[in-house]
Design a protein that fits this description.
Elements (H helix, E strand, L loop, with lengths): L3 H13 L5 H13 L4 H14 L2 H20 L4 H17 L10 H13 L5 H23 L3 E2 L7 E2 L7 E3 L2 E3 L3 H23 L5 H11 L5 H20 L1
Antiparallel strand pairs: 1-2, 3-4
């Protein structure tokens, strides 16, 4: 039997090193299912890392939670799914706190919630309730950005500084993400968008299925399409003659 402490430490390390690639999430999910007898302890690791990690890592963990639920359903081990259903509000509070520090993660939450709802993991009522909370936080963020910095007393000795959406609180102090974190988030969002686009175009091995999909999605050819094609052909012939 594996040492529970070692299992917890390895799983924690995997959560801390999650990235936008699907490989890291698959590896962590299969590890969690391998030690499914410790599911409560592993779920507590997820909540713990959501509370401790940077906002970028919290977004990666949220995507991992969706993938873990997928794998758990396929393996017919629904304890992970039930625990996510139970603690989804706590998860959202960690990924996008109401102090504005997780503003960049609001879209991530919406995307994952829609995915969980479409897979029957979350009921529409729960998603609607969370969406109402997210809208309130977005309103607070917009106000914090638009409102100017105001003086508190007539001597201008104190100022009420608004918290920027990109700032995080560390030990009670405001800490903005550094350049490396911003660049990392941009790259990870780009990678996730790329994989999302690939999943849209993914089809089975049947060639007829791909043909049918292209046939349905393709627009009907009209006279202007033929004219545009003739103009393109003429430009290509002229280019060949010039060269």
């Amino acid at each position: 039997m594996a040492d529970p402490f070692e299992v917890r430490m390895r799983f924690t390390s995997q959560l801390q090193h999650l990235n936008a690639s699907g490989t890291s999430s698959q590896k962590a999910a299969h590890y969690a299912l391998k030690y499914r007898d410790m599911d409560e302890d592993l779920h507590s690791c997820i909540l713990e890392q959501l509370e401790k990690n940077s906002m970028n890592n919290r977004a990666n963990i949220l995507y991992f939670i969706e993938h873990l639920c997928d794998v758990a359903q396929k393996e017919n081990h629904l304890n992970f799914v039930r625990m996510v259903q139970r603690d989804i509000f706590k998860v959202v509070d960690h990924v996008a706190p109401d102090d504005g520090s997780g503003a960049a993660n609001v879209k991530v939450i919406r995307r994952v919630l829609n995915g969980l709802q479409s897979k029957k993991i979350l009921v529409p009522a729960t998603v609607t309730e969370i969406e109402a909370c997210l809208k309130d936080r977005e309103t607070q963020l917009e106000q914090s950005v638009l409102d100017p910095i105001e003086a508190v007393d007539n001597n201008n000795t104190q100022q009420d500084v608004q918290v920027a959406p990109a700032a995080q609180r560390v030990n009670g102090f405001l800490s903005r993400p550094d350049k490396r974190q911003i660049e990392q988030r941009i790259e990870e969002d780009r990678e996730r968008h790329k994989r999302f686009r690939e999943s849209i175009w993914a089809v089975g091995g049947d060639e007829d299925e791909e043909f049918e999909k292209m046939w349905v999605q393709g627009s009907v050819l009209r006279e202007d399409d033929f004219l545009a094609a003739e103009e393109d052909a003429m430009e290509r012939r002229l280019a060949v003659m010039v060269n």
